[in-house]
């Protein structure tokens, strides 16, 4: 199972990534001790209702439900061997860590890429595909919210290096581009 680095609630974690149905079903069952700073992150292809239980899990856990914007929407304490379902809506990820993690609703999950990404130059194109301006870094061509979300999704895709991470990033990029395409064009003047 792949391991990635994340941060949440001002703490760093090295977590196992549960992506397949088999990995999700097994989860942390049979684990008698979870070292501090470790856990498991469950990823879901579709955002929606997710249920967890602790039927064959031997340790107390904080079960952290996270939405597509990487924001914690709920934290539940998992009681060992409980068959009670813990259910939340609009879930994209679930993080399991040791109980009393201090993670709370509103905290944000961040993915820590393990590889440095070389920055490439980007060009702003006109309606004919001609370069009007070269971006060197720091410039913004979409809204602050869209930029922040793109950065989060890009970090996640880079850290996870899985099809799901890249698909999520790609979907959001196309959503941003569709939004740009539906607005009136505002082209900048090129260098003369």
Structural account:
There is one protein chain. The protein is α+β, with helices and mostly antiparallel strands and 192 residues long. Helix content is 22%, strand content 35%. The strands form 2 sheets. The chain has a 7-stranded mixed β-sheet with strand order 5-4-6-3-2-1-7. A two-stranded antiparallel ribbon has the order 8-9. α1 links the parallel β2 and β3. The radius of gyration is 20 Å and the shape is elongated.
Number of helices: 3
Low-confidence stretches: none
Number of domains: 2
Helical content band = 10-25%
Oligomer: single chain
The third-level CATH topology of the largest domain is: Jelly Rolls
**Rough shape?**
elongated
Number of DSSP strand runs:
9
How much of the sequence is in beta strands? 25-35%
What is the CATH C-level name of the largest domain?
Answer: Mainly Beta
Write the layout of secondary structure elements.
Layout: E1 3-8, E2 11-18, H1 21-26, E3 38-52, E4 61-66, E5 72-78, E6 86-98, E7 110-112, E8 122-125, E9 131-135, H2 144-160, H3 163-182
Parallel strand pairs: 2-3
Antiparallel strand pairs: 1-2, 1-7, 3-6, 4-5, 4-6, 8-9
Helix pairs in contact: 2-3
């Amino acid at each position: 199972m792949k391991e990635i680095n994340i941060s949440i609630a001002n703490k760093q974690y090295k977590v196992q990534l549960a992506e397949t149905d088999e990995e999700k079903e097994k989860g942390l069952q049979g684990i008698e001790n979870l070292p501090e700073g470790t856990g498991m992150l469950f990823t879901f292809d579709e955002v929606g209702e997710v249920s967890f239980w602790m039927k064959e899990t031997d340790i107390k856990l904080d079960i952290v439900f996270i939405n597509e914007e990487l924001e914690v929407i709920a934290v539940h304490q998992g009681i060992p061997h409980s068959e009670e379902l813990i259910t939340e809506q609009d879930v994209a990820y679930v993080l399991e860590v040791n109980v009393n993690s201090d993670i709370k609703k509103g905290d944000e999950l961040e993915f820590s890429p393990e590889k440095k990404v070389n920055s490439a130059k980007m060009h702003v194109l006109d309606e004919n595909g001609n370069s009007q301006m070269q971006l060197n870094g720091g410039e913004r061509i979409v809204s602050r919210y869209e930029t922040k979300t793109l950065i989060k999704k890009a970090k996640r895709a880079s850290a996870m290096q899985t099809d799901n991470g890249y698909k999520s990033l790609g979907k959001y990029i196309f959503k941003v581009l569709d939004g740009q395409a539906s607005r009136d064009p505002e082209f900048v003047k090129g260098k003369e």
